Amino acid sequence: IIGARAYEAISTSYRLPCVVSGFEPGDILLALLAIARQVRRGEAKVENMYPRAVTYGGNSRAMEIMDEVFEREDSHWRGLGTIPSSGLRPKGEYEYFSARLRFSLKPKEVPEPKGCRCGEVLKGAISPPECPLFGRGCTPSGPVGPCMVSSEGTCQAYYRYGLGA
């Protein structure tokens, strides 16, 4: 809902090509082509290759509703650790809908599985085959880390399309 404009600062500050893409194979191929063209031309800009779902400015009404209902909070992300202001929680009159408050739930610290290097994969520090569990103790039918759980996860994509072979 935030739109392509939200990525301008990243592209400008770090001089990186940035392409908004859908999840279908054709969408991904178009996005890769757009990135390759930017690299070849020495460009660093934001391109929206997913206009059927994403606008440049985003969905202003949806963002207004999000601002009304939620407030930011620090959140722990598996494999990445705690990132300041990266989570959302219901605020004000909407707190009633918070399962955490309603049922007095406490956040549970879950240690990373031994040998799992998903955090490094997510950060781009290593590729999936560099993880000692990839394809051995960690497969789509028996995932260990979050990168293998989702069909959109980096490790599962590597595994499924033979990139780690």
TrEMBL record:
Q: Which residues form a coiled coil?
A: none
Q: Which UniProt keywords apply?
A: Iron, Metal-binding
Question: Is Metal-binding set as a keyword in this record?
Answer: yes
The Gene Ontology terms for molecular function here are: 4 iron, 4 sulfur cluster binding; carbon monoxide binding; iron ion binding
Could you provide one GO biological process annotation from this protein's UniProt record? Answer: protein maturation
Protein's UniProt keywords contain Ubl conjugation: no
Matching InterPro entries, A to Z?
Hyd_form_HypD, HypD_1, HypD_2_sf
Please name the NCBIfam families in this protein's record: hypD
- Give the family, as the similarity comment puts it: Belongs to the HypD family.
- What is the official name of this protein in its record? Hydrogenase formation protein HypD
Q: Which gene is the coding source of this polypeptide chain? A: hypD
